[in-house]
User: Which sequence fits this backbone?
């Protein structure tokens, strides 16, 4: 059971938009920045969003992040087949004194 | 260019001790602010943070694994070593090491190494 809650899967047609939620609490998302990672099949995770809403160099602006209170959201616009992957949110939990991740969300392009 | 690469046994027996090495390049383990973390992922499951070590030798461990873990670094060899005792089949996973960008954000990951715990 992950500390951060994500929907197991989301799907949409090419060109459409999907959003992935990440729900936590005051001890984690409510107090700290959130990062998002993309994991393509068979590969290591890749940092997608930093500091809740900042894209590292090389990440397309189709990817966006936001945070409100104890929840965060990853948005992907202009969905492409290459976006099919698992997406994870992560942050620090002050109560656990640990890095925590969500359970992951599988994005399927229909 | 920052790179990390994990190495270690692919198979360990239950109750044995696992030793994994992360060899880094493109940065120094002694540079202020640098950190290297370990994250694991059981087959078909989510990421789980394991441990992190900082440039000043400060260390943090997952609360659920703390009693079994030791993380060290050898700056001269550009290596970070993770030791996990009393291995169990539930520890079967891909183990990744990753470069800490800041706070607890990992920006560069190694390709991962698969560890299976079985007799």
Assistant:
């Amino acid at each position: 059971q992950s500390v951060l809650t994500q929907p197991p899967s989301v799907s949409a047609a090419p060109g459409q938009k999907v959003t992935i939620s990440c729900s936590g609490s005051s001890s984690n998302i409510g107090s700290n920045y959130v990062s998002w990672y993309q994991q393509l099949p068979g590969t290591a995770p890749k940092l997608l969003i930093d500091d809740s809403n900042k894209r590292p160099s090389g990440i397309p602006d189709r990817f966006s992040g936001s945070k409100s209170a104890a929840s965060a959201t990853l948005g992907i616009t202009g969905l492409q087949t290459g976006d099919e992957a698992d997406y994870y949110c992560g942050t620090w939990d002050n109560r656990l004194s640990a890095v925590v991740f969500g359970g992951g969300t599988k994005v399927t392009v229909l | 260019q920052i790179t990390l690469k994990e190495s270690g046994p692919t198979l360990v027996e239950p109750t044995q001790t696992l030793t994994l090495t992360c060899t880094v390049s493109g940065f120094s383990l002694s540079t202020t602010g640098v950190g290297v973390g370990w994250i694991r992922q059981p087959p078909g499951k989510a990421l789980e943070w394991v441990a992190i070590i900082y440039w000043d030798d400060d260390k943090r461990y997952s609360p659920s694994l703390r009693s079994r873990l030791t993380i060290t670094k050898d700056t001269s060899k550009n290596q970070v070593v993770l030791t996990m005792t009393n291995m169990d089949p539930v520890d079967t996973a891909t183990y990744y090491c990753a470069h800490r960008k800041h706070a607890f954000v990992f920006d560069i990951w190694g390709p991962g190494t698969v560890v299976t715990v079985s007799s």
Summary: DSSP finds no helices and nine strands in chain A.
